[in-house]
Design a protein that fits this description.
alpha+beta, ATP Synthase, domain 1, five-stranded mixed beta barrel, 2 helices
C-alpha cells in the first residue's frame, strides 16, 4: 500500500516523523483526510483541533493541536502547530477544570485535549 511521509511539529519541538497510511486534521474549512497521492494544499488548523496519524506500522496516534498550518506537497505532509500534545499526555481532570478558565488560550487547549482523548478512544490509539 502506498505511504505518505508525515511530520507533526509544534513550534518548540518535533512530535512525530515517519511513514503513514493517512492523516486527518481539523482545519478552518473542516476535517480533512490526507491519503497518498493527495493534491497539494495549504490549510489553516483550528484553534482547538486534533490530528490523527495512522502510521504505516503500529497504532493510530492522536494529538491535540492549537493553531498552525497543514501543508501537503508531493514529497510530504507537514502539520506545523502553534501547540501540540499527544492525547495520552492530556490530564483529563485538569483539562475539564481548564474549560472554566478566564484565559481563552487555556480554554482552547483544554477543549483540544478533551477532543483528542475522545478521538483516541474511538480509533483505538494509546
Amino acid at each position: 500500500m502506498p505511504k505518505i511521509t508525515v511530520e507533526l511539529v509544534a513550534v518548540d519541538h518535533m512530535l512525530w516523523s515517519g511513514e503513514a497510511e493517512s492523516l486527518v486534521a481539523e482545519t478552518t474549512e473542516g476535517e480533512i483526510g490526507i491519503l497518498p497521492g493527495h493534491e497539494p494544499l495549504l490549510g489553516q488548523l483550528v484553534d482547538n483541533g486534533i490530528v490523527v496519524i495512522r502510521p504505516a506500522e503500529g497504532e493510530p496516534k492522536v494529538a491535540a493541536v492549537q493553531g498552525g498550518f497543514l501543508s501537503v506537497s508531493q514529497e510530504k505532509t507537514t502539520v506545523l502547530a502553534d501547540f501540540a500534545v499527544w492525547a495520552d499526555e492530556v490530564d483529563e481532570a485538569k483539562a475539564e477544570e481548564d474549560l472554566s478558565s478566564d484565559d481563552e488560550l487555556t480554554q482552547a487547549r483544554a477543549t483540544a485535549g478533551l477532543k483528542a482523548l475522545r478521538r483516541a478512544a474511538s480509533v483505538g490509539a494509546r
